[in-house]
């Protein structure tokens, strides 16, 4: 596929998740996202509600960034976020359960958050850089069974790193056309963004959106 600037922009969750981000910075993010034609903004739950232009989705994170929160806490976070206008939820998987192979707990964690989402779209962040290929694939399957509509590579905060083309490819091969795949974490230039899309990503989490888009023609 030949990507244009506008088409690439519509795959982007324009992201600001620094813990020190202020309401003013989030408002500026929302304005920039509208200017750039992004799909959504992604912000911390404490920054909700956010006023956005028509057609711009509002994404927030749950159990972020460790995922090591009780499912009931993640569900309560989700309920609060949805009540404050979030239209998409990015939850962090229980990474300890994934690494221990406790797949029932992983699926139950996702299902608890999905129940709190209602009609709001749910993405599950897997921290793929911390997992084996087999663990990535099984985490995708369990996320799907728990009701998620997307799987996502990374928080961008884990020391093992962010998105990789190989992880995205495994995720897409595992979920097929049933779920979306979001690549996030360390995508800072146009070539990397396009490589993620070519590998099967349907959404990108970017903090430096303008720099990525500037590498493409209108």
Key features?
218 residues; alpha/beta; TIM Barrel; eight-stranded parallel β-barrel; globular
Notes on the protein architecture:
This protein has one domain (5-213): Alpha-Beta Barrel (TIM Barrel). Helix content is 42%, strand content 17%. The protein has 9 helices and 8 strands. An 8-stranded parallel β-barrel has the order 1-2-3-4-5-6-7-8, surrounded by 6 helices. Strand 6, helix 7 and strand 7 form a beta-alpha-beta unit. The mean pLDDT is 97.
Helix and strand topology:
Elements: H1 5-9, E1 12-16, H2 23-36, E2 40-43, E3 57-62, H3 71-83, E4 88-92, H4 95-100, H5 103-117, E5 121-125, H6 133-145, E6 150-152, H7 165-175, E7 180-184, H8 190-199, E8 203-206, H9 209-213
Helix pairs in contact: 3-5, 5-6, 6-7
Quick rundown:
This protein has 218 residues and is α/β, with parallel strands linked by helices. The protein has helices at 5-9, 23-36, 71-83, 95-100, 103-117, 133-145, 165-175, 190-199, 209-213; strands at 12-16, 40-43, 57-62, 88-92, 121-125, 150-152, 180-184, 203-206. It has nine helices and eight strands.
Strand content: 15-25%
- Largest sheet: number of strands, sense, barrel closure: 8 strands, parallel, barrel
Order of helices and strands: HEHEEHEHHEHEHEHEH
Approximately how much helix is present in the residues? 40-55%
Task: Using the alpha-carbon principal axes, give the shape.
Answer: globular
Q: CATH H level: which superfamily?
A: Aldolase class I
- The name CATH uses for the topology is TIM Barrel
Secondary-structure class:
alpha/beta
Task: Please indicate the count of domains.
Answer: 1
Strand order in the sheet with the most strands: 1-2-3-4-5-6-7-8
């Amino acid at each position: 596929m030949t990507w244009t600037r506008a088409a690439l922009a519509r795959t982007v969750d324009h992201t600001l998740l620094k813990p020190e981000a202020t309401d003013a910075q989030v408002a500026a993010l929302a304005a920039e996202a509208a200017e750039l034609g992004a799909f959504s903004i992604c912000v911390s739950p404490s920054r909700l509600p956010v006023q956005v232009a028509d057609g711009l989705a509002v994404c927030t994170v749950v159990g972020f960034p460790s995922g090591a929160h009780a499912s009931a806490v993640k569900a309560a976070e989700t309920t609060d976020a949805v009540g404050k206008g979030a239209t998409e939820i990015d939850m962090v998987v229980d990474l300890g359960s994934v690494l221990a192979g406790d797949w029932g707990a992983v699926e139950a964690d996702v299902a608890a958050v999905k129940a709190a989402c209602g009609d709001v779209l749910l993405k599950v962040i897997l921290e793929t850089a911390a997992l084996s290929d087999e663990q990535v694939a099984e985490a995708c399957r369990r996320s799907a069974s728990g009701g998620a509509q997307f799987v996502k590579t990374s928080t961008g905060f884990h020391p093992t790193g962010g998105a990789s083309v190989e992880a995205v490819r495994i995720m897409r091969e595992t979920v097929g056309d049933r779920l979306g795949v979001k690549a996030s974490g360390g995508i800072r230039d146009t070539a990397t963004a396009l490589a993620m899309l070519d590998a099967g990503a349907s959404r990108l989490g970017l903090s430096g959106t303008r720099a990525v888009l500037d590498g493409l023609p209108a």
